[in-house]
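Late entry, written up from scratch paper. The run itself happened at the end of the previous shift, but nothing got recorded in the book at the time, so transcribing now.
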Amino acid sequence: METVRRVLVYVSKDGAAPARAQFVQSLVGHFGDSGADEVEVCWSLKRNQVILSGGREGRGTLLKRPALCPMKHLSATEAAAIPLDVQQRGVDVGVAILLQTSNQRVLLTRRTKELRIFPNIWVAPGGHVEPQETLLDAGLRELREETGLELGPEETSPKILGLWESVYPPMLSRGLPQRHHLVIFMLLRSSRSHLQLQASLAPCPAEVSACLWADRRLSGAIASAVDGEPLPVGPDDLLSSVSVSLVSPGGGLSDTSLPVSVFVSRVPVTVPDVEQVSSGTRFALKQWLKRPVTSDPSGSASSVLF
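Output as recorded:
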């Protein structure tokens, strides 16, 4: 039997046995209308498989894709042109951590320009789920590897914010798809403030080039900066710049500022890898802002998921 080396997505519809999701298959499109960009699904992590099935309205987890998702617009000719080794990858599973501080800030990191996928993009820390890992273990490992932050048991009351269908490149105008992921966004609440956590921040310079602690007002502007949607918080309502920590090649941190326009800019269709916040992170921030401000350490999801 072939050894499982990656955690992959499987889909089940109308009671059928789960089948491995195809690389060129849109997960949202599989469960929803062809033109819809979101759908509710039920899901579980079992035996190195994330199994998605149709959810009942109001009882499932939100699964969303960007309006320009390549798998939504991929033609049969374009799908056939994707190299066979890429087509055979299936849909990988990742986890991203939205780390909330005691004073209601969340951590975002900027990926280095040297990374092959989504370079120079601001994201919530995260990465692949490894075989035999729980989602919580994977999220804590990625958080530690990328930022150096270690959370104690009292800070690991996980909540699922939603599921995001991610494809790279993020639009067909930038080339045929090379990677296809289901990203599970998880909220973790720390009992420490962002200043206390900042003192323990030790980002990996190979992966992270800058860090930002975004407050709720900035997060709201970031979450609403989506093509075709008006900004409820305009640039004039925010400070002109945002304080960030730059990461040196040796891993040291230095304070600087970036224009707020970097974080609330619209997604350019033709210019690749412009510095901005990823669509998936905007989605996660929007889901976070819908939650009560007060922390709720109770009601963690089942151990099957975490």
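The first strand starts at residue 8 and ends at 12.
(Scratch paper discarded after transcription.)
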